Amino acid sequence: MQRSLLGSAAVATALSITACAAPGDAFAPKFAISSDRAAASPAHAVRVMGGGTTTFGADLDADGDIDGSHFGFAAVIADDGSAQGNFTCLMAGNANFLGLRLMAVQGPVTSGASDGHSFSGTATVKVLNAFGPGVQSIFHDIRYVVTVTPGGPGVATLQLTVFGVFDGVPGDVAPGNGNYDLAKETLATGQITIH
What we know:
This protein is mainly beta. It folds into two domains: 2-39, no CATH class; 45-194. The protein has two helices and nine strands. The chain has helices spanning 2-20, 35-39, and strands spanning 45-55, 68-78, 82-92, 102-112, 118-128, 136-149, 157-163, 179-181, 185-194. An eight-stranded antiparallel barrel has the order 1-2-3-4-5-6-7-9. It is globular.
């Protein structure tokens, strides 16, 4: 919302400077901008939002408990596939996964499907204990894609793939492709919506 407000303020400022500028001024635009067009949203945009906890329905790391994650995301996807938003998937605390104690995938949403059922971007991936007890590792600019099904607990699903890292690590459902493809997760609490 803050970005929208800043964007609206910038458009309003640009339009007021343009309105006060005489032809030939340094502030005069090289082309005309309609205030209706500048302030309009894309002709068709899909909003995809969700948050809650998930379950894989299985013990993927053989530590005796059913694995899952915490997640949150919100994105607006335009007809051309461009998107704005944020995504976070966190496995921590009560969502111990692969002995890591912490795994976080966080980043902006930059593209998506026009139906809202998948979106992607680049993330920062943080893991604790992956390379030794107490060792924190941070990976930057890791491409990710998320596929979702809308609904509530027991209905909605989320599937995360991170590209170029962790191939073949326990929990990877497609080892050998160079990526970490997590199994599909089912919502335990929360909601995923597509509008």
